[in-house]
Write a structure and sequence with these properties.
about 40% strand; globular; 1 helix
């Protein structure tokens, strides 16, 4: 880590998918991206719909929100939160420059 901590960035594609989810469910929920201990590489991403907490970093576009808690924030510095549609399925993905290695499933990483 170079010491420069920048918040993660959310792509337009990820915000667009969040808008689709809101439209389908009829409910405007924020997308929470968190980092937890565990997984096959030491850390894993926890991505879910949630409500904002008081100390969350809120990344917002057109009323859509992506939340990152203060504990997870250093792990996601300079990361890109994206949405990917591939043959293996459609999912939110994290491009994380802090991860020194990750597993094949893309949800677990080490630093």
């Amino acid at each position: 880590m170079n010491g420069l901590t920048l918040p993660p960035r959310v792509t337009d594609r990820a915000f667009a998918r969040l808008a689709e989810i809101a439209e389908t469910s009829g409910e405007m929920r924020a997308l929470r991206v968190a980092v937890e201990g565990g997984g096959c590489s030491g850390f894993q991403y926890d991505i879910k719909l949630d409500d904002p907490a008081a100390d969350d970093l809120v990344l917002e576009k057109d009323g859509l929100k992506v939340l990152v808690d203060q504990v997870s924030l250093p792990f996601l510095s300079n990361a890109v939160i994206d949405f990917s549609e591939e043959l293996i399925g459609a999912r939110f993905v994290i491009e994380n420059p802090n991860a020194s290695s990750s597993c094949g499933c893309g949800t677990s990483f080490s630093i």
